[in-house]
């Protein structure tokens, strides 16, 4: 898509874009993780960071949002255009002047213009990048260096040169719950049983369970339970680099995403809320189970009263590497705040065979020594 084909910005959006112009040369300033400021990539001039403080992120009432979409929460507060990858289906949100050649998530060159078919929620909270690109590459090199089972050729490839940063969509959910539970608490006790084996008297301890009714109450507050709304990053990697420090969330400002690619959510609020409730219910059952006295339990029943349910749509920073090895595609991800690394990689069949052979030899040696 050429610049002429990009959606025309409203006057408000144009004003928002103007805020990021370099005061020295007029170039467009980008958010710099290391300096925590807007920095011109052409002349290096710094501009102040968005005027916001940590903890300013707003909670929204979940029931009201599910009942009706509020147009006031739509839009990006700056001119943007969107493209959709024909391969992985991820939707990338770009600055109008940026010419995307490949998908940020899978590397495919099949990018198509994407127009909203329904109004979408604007992120209202963000965790700005804190880990720099050079730091992310260093962490990734160290991670590759620890992969003993990876093919040697993989470590020699300059994979880290293609690391790039993206903002990934998340939903967070808060809820307060008051729950009453009932269960049967099991208490272990033991008896001694005797028997004869080849004329010899043998005794053994036999465990039994005494079941008694039990009940209790749990009060708990779920704070910022995360549901990732990305389809561009493989789910296992997302879990591998969590958690994100949501206590450091800032109110969304277009300055934070200036010069960066943002992934648009494709798990909507209703679906995310359903996932969050299921996860919260599982955690609640675990909390109730911990209160059951004794050694074990059965027939746990939980009656919960939920209140104060709120949500936020947030953006979390991720450094991402996508690469092909053989006929398979792999991804590596680095948490853009904490630096935690998670990744996928091929295994060398020769190294796996050596490990299996070593185990077999150890088993044989142990058996031989035990037989002496």
What can you see in these coordinates?
It is a single chain. By secondary structure, the chain is an alpha+beta fold. The protein has a domain at 3-168 and 226-266 and 318-344. Helices cover 23% and strands 36% of the residues. It contains seven helices and 15 strands. Strands 4, 5, 6, 7, 8, 9, 10, 11, 12, 13, 14 and 15 form a twelve-stranded mixed sheet that branches. Strands 1-2-3 form a three-stranded antiparallel sheet, with no helix packed on it. The model is unreliable at 1-18 (pLDDT under 50).
Quick structural overview:
With 372 residues, the chain is α+β, with helices and mostly antiparallel strands.
The rough form would be described as: flat
Radius of gyration: 27 Å
Structural class: alpha+beta
Largest sheet: 12 strands, mixed
> In total, how many beta strands?
15
Distance between the termini: 77 Å
Q: What are its keywords?
A:
372 residues, alpha+beta, twelve-stranded mixed beta sheet, three-stranded antiparallel beta sheet, 15 strands
